Amino acid sequence: MQQHTPNSNLAAPVVLITGGGRGIGAASAKRFAKAGYQVVVNYLSNHQAAQALKQEIEALGTSCMTVAADVSNEQQVSNMFAEIKQQFGALDVLVNNAGILETQSRMDDISVERFERILRTNVISCFLCAKAAVKQMSTRYGGNGGAIVNVSSGAAKSGSPNEYVDYAASKGAMDSLTRGLALEVANEGVRVNGVRPGLIYTEMHASGGEPLRVQRLQSKIPLQRGGEAEEVAEAIFWLASNQSSFVTGTFIDTTGGL
Length: 258
Ligand code: NAP
Prior knowledge:
The protein is an alpha/beta fold. α1 runs parallel beside α2 and α4 (112-137) runs parallel beside α6 (165-185). The chain has nine helices and seven strands. It starts with 13 loop residues before the first strand and ends with a strand. The protein has a single domain (7-253), classed as NAD(P)-binding Rossmann-like Domain (Rossmann fold). α4 (112-137) links the parallel β4 and β5. The chain has a seven-stranded parallel beta sheet with strand order 3-2-1-4-5-6-7, with helices on both faces. The protein has helices at residues 23-34, 47-59, 74-88, 112-137, 155-158, 165-185, 204-207, 213-217, 229-240, and strands at 14-17, 38-43, 64-68, 93-96, 146-151, 190-197, 251-254. Residues 18-19, 21-25, 42-46, 49, 70-72, 97-100, 121, 151, 153, 197, 199-200, 202-204 line the site of NADP nicotinamide-adenine-dinucleotide phosphate.
């Protein structure tokens, strides 16, 4: 088993993946499961995908708990962390992966309501879950330490003009949060890092109104193809594992060179 950062528990380590029912989150859930982690899969509303994933994970010989919760809602996040504490005692790894985007458009066509929705789902969720995780993991609160991995985006650097500046801004905020939090908890046994995926084959692009966006743009990627969710999951797993024990406050761009 891939042993994780300082944790005196004899039980297998526990990972929570937000938005873990599909796409990059689901690939990450399977990657952690293969390494023997007990996996908590959070999702919003797609019960079918979450249940199918739970069966796949359990077939790998580890336990899986699914939790339907809107991670942009403070009460629902609080309930989810209480449930995890009750079931497993300690949380070792948090992957802040839940995220959304909306229809491609220019910034002057984006409403305040949409901008707020994107910020709430992509950044406030990250803040709420990271805050709850720190209170369970940090030695300051009597925890055993742990790792947080935030799933940002290459959009944080490109700004996503004419597509979704709101989404890009939410990911830029997530990067600042990652850096700041990493420095706050560095001497409390908690490492905080981020991954910035580029164009990855998942269902998310359909929400932007272009399911085949990755196929359209793949010739612009230096590696000449889109990325697979499993390739991002590998970076997430590495940042959470003890293999990256001297790494905090930084990012891995999984963008094929873009
Ligand atoms: P995806 O396939 O659309 O899956 C999104 C997941 O997030 C789903 O499981 C969904 O739940 C969940 N979710 C959405 N809103 C939620 C909420 N409020 N509370 C809890 N869960 C919520 O997305 P993906 O492509 O795997 O993206 C995962 C992350 O990678 C996102 O943060 C995204 O911004 C980032 N990213 C993706 C790409 C890409 O090219 N795909 C590129 C850069 C960054 P349900 O299953 O219940 O709907």
